[in-house]
Amino acid sequence: MENFTPVPALLGGLLIGLSAALLLWANGRVAGISGIAAPLLRPPDADHGWRAAFIIGLVAAAPIYGVVIGETFAITISSSVPVLLAGGLLVGFGAGLGSGCTSGHGICGLGRLSGRSLVSTLTFMATAVATVVIVHHLIGGIG
Amino acid sequence: MGKIVTALAAGLLFGLGLAVSRMIDPAKVLGFLDVAGDWDPSLALVMGGALAVTIPAYRLARGAAGPWLEGAFHLPTAKGIDARLIAGAVIFGIGWGLVGLCPGPAIAGIGLGNWESLVFAAAMGGGFIAVGALTGHSRVG
Lengths: 143, 141
Known about the structure:
The complex is a heterodimer of chains A (143) and B (141). With 143 residues, chain A is mainly α.
């Protein structure tokens, strides 16, 4: 467990929780990223403004944080383009079909003690773990 | 206007949380999902930290007349465990495990200039549209 970073993890989690609390108390909305982003792909309605504002904040946060701490932090995504496309399609399709993703079910849904969200979260955690174990240990990695 | 400012602030807070916890990095997420490798429990603490805020926040909201800037709370109304919920979670989990990206970190990663995040997010948008086309509506959220 040499990569375990408990303090930043807990601190980051509290910030994500505060984000969800703010969006709930101020706007009356669930901070599920797929639920906020997906309607932006449909014709504009009265909710487009706040949805776009949230996404702009989400995109801007990491580079701003990098400037504030004086460190340009980079992330490495090693998946090939076909795997990125397949993964993105499955994540978007699954979140749309299953009414939410890691944030909508895992953070907001569990936050309101929803049984549906508990079942969803346990299910996607289990299939994600199974996928990683199969891909990295049984097949030995893909592109 | 107010709702746009609070949504922008919420988006910034969310992205900041992903950056501070490093969940914006799919390698960090895969470290949690890979229980057969050098396991990194960090993601569990991110969820724990978030739930420590959202559980009381939702509880307080239940007793409130309504949100500050909106007439009423817009909360999911779906009840019961159905095949659609399970199938969606199974498909979502496979995609999440393949790359280590879910919607929040995928969109936030675009801000760091990662073209891979953009490719993933574009395909994700295709997935959202496909569900809408297949089912007539999307009740995501």
